[in-house]
Amino acid sequence: MVRLMQSAAVHHLHSFNQFLQHDLSSAVDCALPHECAFDGCHERLQVMLQMTAIAIDYPILNKDPQTIITPRECRERKITYSAPMTASFKCGMNGIDDRGTITRTAGYLPIMVLSNRCHLSGLDEAGLVAAREECDELGGYFIINGLEKVLRLIQVPMRNMPMAIQRPVYRGRGAFYTQYAVTMRCARSDQSTCTMTLHYLSNGSMRLRVSVRKQDLMIPLVVVLNALMPDLYDQGNFSHAISTGTPRDEGSKQSFFTNQSSTKANPLALLGTMCASLFRQNLPEDADDDVFGLFFLERYIAVHVNSWSAKQDVLALMSRKLHSFVHAKCCEDNMDSVSHQELLMPGHILSAYIREKMEDTLGQSIAHMRRDAKNDLTHSSLNIHQNILPYCSKILGRYVGVVGSKISSFIASGNLISSSGLDLQQTTGFAIVAERLNKWRYLSHFRSVHRGQFFTTMKTTSVRKLLPEAWGFLCPVHTPDGAPCGLLSHISAKTHVVCNSSNMAANTKNWRILLIDILISLGMLPTRTLSLGYGAKNGRANSTGCTTSWKCMSDHLHVCLDGFVLGSAPDEVCANISWVLRRLKVKAFSAIGIDTTLEIAHVKQQGLSASCPFSGLYLFSQPARLVRPVLQCGLTAQIELIGPFEQSTLQISCTKSGLSLPEDNISTIVTETHAEIDPTVMLSFLASLTPFSDFNQSPRNMYQCQMGKQTMGTPSHSFYHRGDHKMYRLLTPQSPLVCTRDYHNLTLDLNAQGTNSIVAVVSYTGYDMEDAMIINKSAFERGFGHGTVYKTLLVDLTAEAERRKGPLGKTSLLCFGNKNTVMKPANNGAKNTADGPEYVAPMLGEDGLPSVGQKIGPGDPLWCAFVENCNEHIIGAHKDTENAYVDAIRFLGHLPCNENRKDITQHRASITLRYPRRPVIGDKFSSRHGQKGVLSVLWPECDMPFCESGLTPDIIINPHAFPSRMTIGMLIESMAGKSAASCGRFHDGTPFAFQEHRKAVDFFGSQLCAAGYEYFGSEPVYSGLSGLLMRMEIFVGIVYYQRLRHMVSDKSQVRGTGPVHPLTQQPVKGRKRHGGIRLGEMERDSLLAHGISFLLHDRLVICSDSHPARVFVDTRCGAVLALHPPNSSGKGHILTLASITIPYVFRYLKNELAGMNICIGLFYEK
Amino acid sequence: MSCYSVAADQRARRPEVEVLSLEENQMSFEVKKTDASMANALRRVIIAEVVTMAIDLVTFEENTSCIDDEIIAHRLGLIPIKYAFKPGKTKLREDVSNDEAAAMSSERDIQRRFRFTRDCDCDGYCDWCACTFKLHVKYDEVIKNVPEHEKNQPYTVTSINLESDDPDVFPVHFVSERERNTSSEPGIAIVKLAKGQEIKLSCIAKLGCGKEHAKWTPVSKCVFRPKPTISWDDNAVRALPPNLRNIIVDVCPAGVLGYEDERDRTSIVVKNEAAILDFTKDIQDLTKQLSPQNKPMFHASASTTDFVFEVESLGGVPVDDCVLCGLNEIKRKLTNLQVAVAEVAAEQA
């Protein structure tokens, strides 16, 4: 059985593997050729460059295939885990396509850990441990400069599906434009996409909008159709095809055709003139408009199909949908709903990005050649004529080598630098760091799905809504509160993402043909001779074939497979087809060859109104779709994978037994087609870890999802082999007494992050007010909640030397070392100790670094380096205010592919420091039910209340934490934990396991009773101070408590005096700079309201920028005195000066104003 | 001033202690004729102020194990340390005055052998205020002695590897014989070593008490509860049909109520006095319902003068010594108070 844990990141891995195996070669096929013409002396030369292959190797170090590099090494050395990539190009001349192949290295491509190109691929647990990885390593991320980076999954519109949308802004696009449009995101075989939008114009015509290199082309639909099918006029039937055939459409149909009366005889050429300027680089300079038009049609119109006739059908379908939408015969498709979305997978964006970068390379090379041709005509043409290959190779080599580093920087920064925008709505935020704060947080990085950076700034909240379509696919619980709420969600535990275009494609190559055969045999009328239509490029089809197809359309639904219009069938036939296909697609019939992930959505014809979706039978087999398992109702319950679009056409009952309605309601029961496997399938990994979450108020479960990710736990088992910037570790992790089924399925016990603690709910000392909690001092002293923080700092002497360039005058070479070179040993060997200490920093070793295990206090030297050939030393001090222990020290070697730095192997070191963090007052703890609190006091054991068994609680929380928050799950966990401890076993807290007739309270209450406790878990408790029995029985039980990473020692900020801003003399801000905390306007207001103006004066003047100044009293000006007191001897007037205290900024203001010739005077009264 | 002592004398209670059970590491006793404050004082003193010894300072020479120094030091601190007085052999402190000696209960009292480090004249620590332990385990050496089938396993360093330099002071490996017989380890686990790892350290154990740090607490459990006074209306119970008697027994969790004679099943007795007060109301309500006179057949109330203690030792100090030391501590405190009061009185007079 594949462990659920390993499946957490499997969609990232599969996507990258698919990218390596399939998408990359498709990208090469899809890449545009680039051409250039030279005017030679004798003849005109046409040079054509086209990419033919990209090869990716295994990660190596230093261009030496022998020295493999492992992910562990990259993490520790802070380098990129990447493999060499080589690209091959085909060079053609004068129409001869293939004059030879040029192969150039294209830099280093970052490799996803555990993918097929990773050295760890295929290792078992022992192998992974031997490679210094986690035994349950997930993979699915890249290592860039030592950081683990994950490419974010982004929700994008579903591919190959025409969608009706309504946007008021469209009216502003020009005359006659309406708000109606149908948009379709067409995907090429390399998974790059191109969106076409068909706009409706109020005069009845339609415009097709296509974006080419971020430029919108608006082309009348009729021009495109004419170009695809020049003899459209003869095809009276075709007008049927594009409209819905109702009388109302007739007018628009008229105008549709009259509008195009202006079209020239050659629509292709017309199209060509519209887009020629965009493709100059790709085509010969002297290509005519026809060629441009063809180029455009092939590469930008309905790119998911290849044949012209299929493209026509797609456009016809779009216009049909647009017509019915405009005439309120179908509803708008909600682009914010998951049912109309798919995910942008890492492999897909990489292949599209690599293709674009390679095309850019070719474009630059061609531009270079054109420059050459212009500048040095004879020479270059001679050159070219003789040896075209070396010439092209030289030019390509100049540009192609940086592709790898561009990909690296894309993954490192998440910023997409693209000329086309890759059909995406955002240019930033594609990559995130997979923080290993704890396992839970780490896991959820791979499961998170983002709606898109574009929507974060949106004022409306409609995109953030939790829609019913997302049921089962996106977790309703696990989304952060605050800014990213609803935009960043997580896929549910059982959901996975389809990554290969067809799972069964390997077995049965022509499964599409098989599928079409099945469809036809079931009664579908095919559009045309389908065997020719799909897949093969047959250029401009002879259009006579289409006459038969659209005859009987009015009551037929169209049948689409991945956006390819296969044919049409009546509604009942479609229902039958989907019924049959649904039974064939399950695993039991996999031999037949229907893809198990095939999405079959039969949108029924429910009448033509504005509330019904556009009917049809849609089949989807392509990757990037979410699928989840449900049970198929039938004789045998088979597990079927369904997609979100498909889901909205199905009837799925929540329980296996179906809907249990009262008998008198039996007529209203909807006959369900499917049933959920388990009620918890809607939850994400993290949400399913909260025990008894079904008893809690829902926001509390959301808070727990956030806090679970901030908990100190066991992030890794290979601490020593990692150099993460900051890591948190709990020293007393325990397996929770009460946990859910998924906790075990995910094997999260390996990375436990909490402690079972005895919790009493009582208001005991007053220290437990306002969510504060009391911890038993003895429990604390025995190790409760103890943790460690690991911080790694990188010492790069090269950078250090660069930084200290000023004082040293020049960049000098720095080396680690500690020897005091002033003191030279005497020649006879006896050391002359009188000259000074032997070492510059006596606490450090001879190598200028501390020893492992050494204690480092605030300000202590951490490393020491000397400037080569002179006795100048640089000592790096420990900057924190806490004691730390040296955990590990590593010398980091030079970077790969940088041979000239070979000599400086010992110029980079990383020092890992260990900070013991025992709980202190103010540290944050929480249970698993969104109940967080801070430690307010460590209370001595003898003063704690005690039960009759002599037990004292570890934690005391206040009963007021419960009524308003309604976290009943925590109360039940407390009872269950107590029962688990007394029965000696672990209890299952999976949500939805208990029902009205089998109550959780009764289940655990009876167990408590059997163990000699009271039924509801309360106990008589004696006060530890008086020894008297408390009047009420106290609820005592065992709750799993988490220690959160927010610790006082990271946050405490205090200053009496300290650094001030040089200009204003006011205290600086920032904890790191030992600054102050701002006492702002609102704080000022509250002090004023209290009437405590002296305190206010103290805060705002005396503790801030109090400044003694002198002011002229007798003169009328009352000016605040300048630097030199005015000489009073000349005048008869006697100057009196008074000493006042003003804020320094006031004086600064006065000076600034004086610069503008404005004087400020103060009235002074004694 | 004189009336003060007279009044105290007249009202003075004469508390009595009756030991109910005394086992290897736990005991139960009854304190009679006192009140909750005294009982609680005894409880608090046993937990927080009985002087014991625990490792307080650890010097690492070598630690190549996977556990960090500070965690090992913390674990070492929590190991109970036992002081065993050997008559004739153990050298006792010479500076112990007669008064102090009187205050100290027995020969086994650790304070007759050791001083608090803070009270000692020495520089740092000495034999009179501290005891040194050494721990040196090298995996590659110890593994030679283990059976062949365990050779690939990591070696667990336990408290038995701690070597004391004082024959009277040694770590406790188990709280009881029973635990020793059931344990899979030879002592308290400290750290596990893998191949090539080594640990070498020395520890200083010092005197301390529970209110400084939990490692000096001698007991794992010290609790008291008021003794319940129980009365049954036996005749009424006997008059009930057997099935109703069963209902009465079942109203409490198992083991609280039972029959005096399992075969006879006529009279109900309280089997667990400790818990009975929690269920008194339940039993009363039920018996009141069952009674023809509408009168409860059961009465139980908490005594305000008699208390039952249960103490469980961690092994460092014998459980009876814990109690005796606790009582002595109270005595010492009261003496101090008495002296202080007398001083104040003298000053005022």
Automatic annotation (TrEMBL), chain A:
Catalytically driven reaction(s): RNA(n) + a ribonucleoside 5'-triphosphate = RNA(n+1) + diphosphate
Annotated GO CC locations: DNA-directed RNA polymerase complex; nucleus
Chain intervals for the UniProt region annotation (Disordered): 1053-1072
Limits of the DNA-directed RNA polymerase I subunit RPA2 domain: 566-628
Keywords: DNA-directed RNA polymerase, Nucleotidyltransferase, Nucleus, Transcription, Transferase
Gene Ontology process terms (BP): DNA-templated transcription
Predominant place of localization: nucleus
SUPFAM superfamilies the record matches: beta and beta-prime subunits of DNA dependent RNA-polymerase
Keyword Lyase applies: no
Gene3D superfamilies named among the record's database cross-references: 2.40.50.150, 3.90.1070.20, 3.90.1100.10, DNA-directed RNA polymerase, subunit 2, domain 6, RNA polymerase alpha subunit dimerisation domain, RNA polymerase Rpb2, domain 2
Stored Pfam families: RNA_pol_Rpa2_4, RNA_pol_Rpb2_1, RNA_pol_Rpb2_3, RNA_pol_Rpb2_6, RNA_pol_Rpb2_7
Enzyme Commission number(s) from the entry: 2.7.7.6
Every RNA polymerase beta subunit protrusion domain range: 11-372
Domain named DNA-directed RNA polymerase subunit 2 hybrid-binding: residues: 687-1073
Domain RNA polymerase Rpb2 per the UniProt entry, residue ranges: 433-497, 1075-1163
GO MF annotations, alphabetized: DNA binding; DNA-directed RNA polymerase activity; ribonucleoside binding
Record's subcellular location: Nucleus
Top-level EC class: transferase
Family membership noted in the UniProt record: Belongs to the RNA polymerase beta chain family.
UniProt-recorded name of the protein: DNA-directed RNA polymerase subunit beta
UniProtKB/TrEMBL annotation, chain B:
GO biological process: transcription by RNA polymerase II
Top-level taxonomic group: Eukaryota
GO CC list: RNA polymerase II, core complex
Keywords: DNA-directed RNA polymerase, Transcription
SMART domains found in the cross-reference section: RPOLD
InterPro entries on file: DNA-dir_RNA_pol_30-40kDasu_CS (IPR001514), DNA-dir_RNA_pol_insert (IPR011262), DNA-dir_RNA_pol_RpoA/D/Rpb3 (IPR011263), Ig-like_dom (IPR007110), RBP11-like (IPR036603), RNAP_Rpo3/Rpb3/RPAC1 (IPR022842), RNApol_insert_sf (IPR036643), Rpo3/RPB3_RNA_Pol_subunit (IPR050518)
Cited Gene3D superfamilies: DNA-directed RNA polymerase, insert domain, RNA polymerase, RBP11-like subunit
Residue ranges of domain Ig-like in the record: 186-232
Keyword Transcription included in the entry's annotation: yes
Positions in coiled-coil regions: none
One MF annotation (Gene Ontology) recorded for this entry: DNA binding
NCBIfam families cross-referenced by the UniProt entry: PRK00783.1
Family assignment from sequence similarity: Belongs to the archaeal Rpo3/eukaryotic RPB3 RNA polymerase subunit family.
PANTHER family membership: DNA-DIRECTED RNA POLYMERASE (PTHR11800), DNA-DIRECTED RNA POLYMERASE II SUBUNIT RPB3 (PTHR11800:SF2)
HAMAP family: RNApol_arch_Rpo3
Name of the protein described by the UniProt record: Ig-like domain-containing protein
Biological source species: Pelagomonas calceolata
